[in-house]
Amino acid sequence: MRIYKIDVNIVEDHTMLAEGLTHALNQSETIHVSQTFSTLEECWQTLQKRRPDVLLLDISMPDGDGIAFCQRVVAEFPRIRILAMTCHDEYSIVQKALDSGAHGYMLKSSSIQELQRGIIQVYQGEKFIGKEVKEILHHGAETRVFLTDVEQDILRLICAGNTNPEIAQKLYMSTETIKWYRKRLLAKFKVKNTVELVSLAIQEKLL
Predict the structure, then answer these.
(1) What's this model's pTM, rounded to 2 decimal places?
(2) For the stretch 35-60, what's the b/e string if a residue is b when 16 or more beta carbons lie within 10 angstroms of its beta carbon?
């Protein structure tokens, strides 16, 4: 007897991430990723012919505005459930995505188990807000800078004078990943270098 699985499509321009998510989700007994798309246009053209149960959508795509795309899909194909999965953890962007009709929102730093829960929950007609996103919404728009748990750990180690390789070793990550997080922290705090970052972190009492 064939057991129906939730049909998921992934819209993600990073091929390795899309492939990794596909492999991980297809291990589930309830979820099957049938297609992945590297552009919004490619996804839109396919939706004219075939529609999944759940669309896992990165709202930062190279060929357009993912939030506007979400609104367009919801209007044209209301039966498709959309779960936004992105690096954007700004309150305003989370709110815009939810206002545009997204049925869920989570960060790419979430675990595969949380992603599976999110897919199942939106498929069942409920809203799904990831754990870290709930904190963002709880803090609200007045929060100057929101940091995930990982970013807080990295900031603490940076302020303690650790190098990228040292931080990578302590957090069991690659040095390249730590470099990416360091650049992200500079961008979040709108500072030019590590000295300014540490100074601002101390000033804002984030340690």
Answers:
(1) 0.70
(2) ebbbebeebbeebeeeebbbbbbbbe
